[in-house]
From TrEMBL:
Keywords assigned by UniProt, alphabetized: Membrane, Transmembrane, Transmembrane helix
Organism: Paenibacillus lactis 154
Protein name: Uncharacterized protein
Residue ranges crossing the lipid bilayer per the database entry: 6-26
Keyword hit for Transmembrane helix: yes
């Protein structure tokens, strides 16, 4: 192969590697709105929330919330959360589990781990993004979660 052919080959290889890195970086970003709220149909709304703390302990108690104003306030507080895929999650026995039930019989699960990690489950969609743990990258007031348990 000539010297010019090698340059073309190496340039193509570099472009493929760079495009893979850019694609991976793009896929690792998400938002709560994108992963959960955008999947609710226009006629569908969340009708019930079950909130629990430290679900792996035997003394777990769930708080059932059906008040629509409380549910809407809570969902509004979560709607601006920005997320980034994380391979490491900080589990420090401070875990919240929130199950959301919709009017179309779908279930969403939101799991808060430690101070800034979250996992979202969607019963209707089996996309790989729902198996990932995310780190919350913007400000989030955890007192909203604690207020639900009172």
């Amino acid at each position: 192969m000539s010297k010019r052919s090698w340059y073309v080959f190496l340039t193509l290889c570099a472009l493929i590697v760079i495009s893979g890195i850019v694609y991976d970086a793009y896929q690792s970003k998400a938002s709560f709105k994108e992963l959960l709220l955008d999947h609710l149909k226009e006629s569908e709304k969340i009708i019930e929330m079950n909130v629990g703390k430290n679900r792996l302990r035997s003394d777990e108690s769930l708080t059932k919330i059906t008040d629509q104003a409380t549910i809407d306030r809570f969902m509004d507080s979560l709607s601006e959360i920005k997320l980034r895929k994380s391979d490491v999650w900080n589990y420090d026995n401070d875990e919240y589990e929130i199950r959301l039930y919709t009017s179309n019989y779908r279930t969403f699960g939101v799991f808060f781990y430690g101070p800034d990690h979250i996992r979202i489950y969607n019963s209707a969609v089996r996309h790989k993004r729902y198996g990932w743990t995310y780190r919350i990258v913007n400000d989030f007031d955890r007192s909203v979660l604690e207020g639900l348990l009172k």
